[in-house]
Design goal:
This protein is of the alpha/beta class. Helices cover 39% and strands 25% of the residues. Strands 1-2-3-5-4-6-7-8-9 form a 9-stranded mixed β-sheet, sandwiched between helices. α2 packs across α3 and α3 crosses α4. The longest helix is centred in the middle third of the chain and has 26 residues.
Amino acid sequence: MQFISEQRFDDGVLEREFTLGEIPGTLWTTGSAPAPLILMSHNNGLPKADPRLMARARYTAARGYAVATIDAAGCGDRPRTAAEDQARAELRRAMQAGEPVDEIFESFIGPMVEKAVPDWRTTLDALLSLPEIGGPVGYSGGWTALGIRLAVVEPRIAAAGFFAGGYVPRAQREEARQVTIPLLFLLQWDDEGNPRQRALDLFDAFGSKQKTLHANLGGHVGTPAFELEDGCRFLDRHLK
């Protein structure tokens, strides 16, 4: 892991860009003492520099966590395959025409999850070797499908916060039954891109004995600001 830039903000958070082989990432920390680590993902191809993700990362880091995100394969500035670009173009066309889009999502979100998981696990290995990062590890992100897969295959993840705002492939909906760590699940009741009943069915499918559903009125980007504070309290309960 090579750090290539750093910036200290007024709130004491240190933001460092890094590369790990072909994987670009960002790490936010506030001190030198080992801190719990939060893996913070963005949704299905958005860049790690997405403003909403960066705001959440800095807020969470200021609460005493190390927070990291990466551009996994096919995400952000990482190269995309011709098939992924074609699927996205077909998705835009189908949405504009009001046609069903589930099968289009299946054609590229599922493979993207499979490709992203090894990059995230490699990054986790490298991050946990740093003196300023300890355990345990949490996951927080809008890419719920990735979070489900990681929670199933990565025993170092002890708790997770998911946002029910992105498409979750059928394979991950089935895998949800194997997720047993504590969960906080955020749902926008009027999310125009995610059928409410599908999200409720996913919450019901999780195998966790400690799982909490927070549902708020509003569309996809209308999550209330107080959910950021509630999310940190959830992490505090299970990671500190």
